[in-house]
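--- STAGE predict ---
source: upstream dedup step, 1 unique chain passed
mode: sequence only
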Amino acid sequence: MKKFTFNLSFLFIVTLIVVSCSTGKKALEHGDYYSASLQAINRLRSKPDSKNARMTLEQSYPYALDFYKNQIDAAMRTEDPLKYSKIVDYYGRMNHLADEIDRCPAAKSIIPTPRRYYSEIAEAKKLGAEERYQLGMTALGIGTRQAAKEAYYHFVECNKLIPGFKDVNDKLDESKYMATLKVLLEQIPVPGSLNEVSSEFFYNQVMEHLKKSYTTEFVRFMSPQELDAEDAQPDQYLRMKFEEFVMGQVYDKEKVEDVSKDSVVVGQVTLEDGTKLDAYNTVKAKLTTFHRELSSHGVLDVILVDTYNNQVIAQRKFPGDYVWATEWGSFSGDERALSAKQLALTKQKPVPPPAPQQLFIEFTKPIYNQVTTFLANYFKQQ
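--- STAGE serialize ---
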C-alpha cells in the first residue's frame, strides 16, 4: 500500500509539472520562443480560455519571428557553405508556426494573420539545393570512398530541397556506387577427401544472411557471378576454408550388465487349506547395450583481404563439431528384470547414419552463427 501511495503521489507531481509547463511559460522565460509558441498553441486547443497560454503566445510569437529573421540575416553574412540549408530551416519553422496558429481558433483570435514566407523559402531552397549539389560534386571529385559517402549525403539533401534538381538522381547513383564497399564472397572449398560433400548450402546461407540482415547502406556482398555480370572490381575478398576437418569418425561402445528385479510374481503356491497365494522371487537378465557415434569436427578459417594491396584486414578461426548417435540393445534371461526404458532399447535396431552431405550441414550450423555474428560486428562499422 505504501508503494502504491508513493506511485500515485509521484504521478500527481509529474502531472502538475507537465500541466504547468504546457502553457509554454517556462520555455518563454528561457528564450525558446519557438517551443513556447507551440506549447501555448497546444494548450489553447484543449483549453481555449487559458490566460497563461494566451499571454504566452501573444509574447512568444513576435519574439520567434524576430529571432529567426536575425538568424537569417546573420547566416547571410557568413561564409558557411551550408548557410542556405539553415535559412530554409528558419523559414520552415516560421511557416510551421503560422500553420499551427491557423489550425487553432483560440490562437487565431490572438494572431489573426500569422506571417508566412512562401516565396522566401522557395528561393532559399533553390540556393540550398545548388549549395548541396556543389558540395557533393566537390566531394565526389576527391575520388575516395569516404568522400563519396559525404557526396552521397549532400546529394540526398539536395534532392530533398528540390526533387530532381539538375542530374542529382544520377549523382546519387554514382556516389552511392563509389561509396559502397564491394565484398566478394568467394566460393568455399572443402577438403579434397570429401568427394561427396558440397559447401554450396553453407555458402548460400551465409550470403543470404549477410545480404538480408547485416548489409549496411554502404556495404554490398557479391558472389563471383554478380561481380562478373556488373564487370565490377571488389574492394575486399571474403575467403573461407575448412581446416582440420574430420567427418563421420565412428566410435562404438558396448556395455554388458546383469540386471535384476526383486519381488516379482513367479507363480502360485497352494496352502494345506487350499488357499492359493502368489509366489515372489528375484528375476534376472543379462542386458547388452550398444552406442554408436559419428563425430564430425573441424575449423573454418575466415579471412578478409584488401583487394588493392593483398593485405589481410581481419581473420578469425571458428571451431565446430557435430555428434550423431544411435543406440540399441539385446538381452537374455527374464525380460521382467528390465525397466520399460531398457526393454524399449532392446527393441531398437541400429539406425543407418545420415548421408555425408547431411552430416556436413549439421556440422556447419554452430559455425554459421559464429561467422555471421563476427562479420556483422565488423561490417557495421564500415
